[in-house]
Design goal:
CATH superfamily: Vaccinia Virus protein VP39
Number of strands: 7
Strand content: 15-25%
Order of helices and strands: HHEHEHEEHEHHHEE
Shape: globular
Oligomer: single chain
Largest sheet: 7 strands, mixed
Strand order of the largest sheet: 3-2-1-4-5-7-6
Low-confidence stretches: 1-10
Radius of gyration: 17 Å
Distance between the termini: 43 Å
Mean pLDDT: 88
CATH topology: Rossmann fold
Number of helices: 8
CATH class: Alpha Beta
Helix content: 40-55%
Length: about 240
Amino acid sequence: MISEGQAPQSGRLPDQQVRAMFDRIAGVYDLMNGVMTAGLHHRWRSRAADLARVGPGDRVLDVATGTGDLAVELASRVAPGGSVVGMDFSEAMLERARAKAPSLTFEAGDAQALTYESDSFAAATVGFGARNFGDLQLGLAEMARVVRPGGRVVVLEITTPTKPPLSTFFSLWFDRVVPAIGKVAGDPDAYTYLPASVKRFPDAPGLGRIMAEEVGLVDVGWILTAGGIIALHHGTVA
């Protein structure tokens, strides 16, 4: 459970508590993703894989891979001859990723302190995990560090729409419906943290600025989809 003084409503928790939370919800994670997105998260991950601009023979890193769905999408882009490494700090999530895609490599690690050599991947991606970085700039900088010059960094994340009626629906869905679903799933703390973490995350221009000005990526851009609820950011390592 979330300890006193670490309310999930803040949208920010110590790394060890975020890890424990994902270990707890690993068994329902895929089901909840399908319910909350009406199954559209697979389409968004496919678009993120396209934006990575990788091809046969490339080596790609998927950070905060969870149960491996984006890693699977990337694997289809780099075959034949390529490889995908899916990395996450939750062993329970990794167990499900390995069962889902036994031919891929899934490793435990910290997105903010990657153990991979610099310039060793053609691209690095993160799908719905960047908002869980304790230090967003550091996590993105580590992703950029391990990508070779000319390679891509791609961030798929939920963002908050600002114009009604979608903003009204979004607020209702994430503030009330998602926590209620979390109660049914058996972990209300986790699904109260989720909408709070989205609210504190930078908006699309803000994340783009961090990627360009703080991390040093070039040709940074983003695509808003699902009416502005989903943002796909991309940048190139100089």
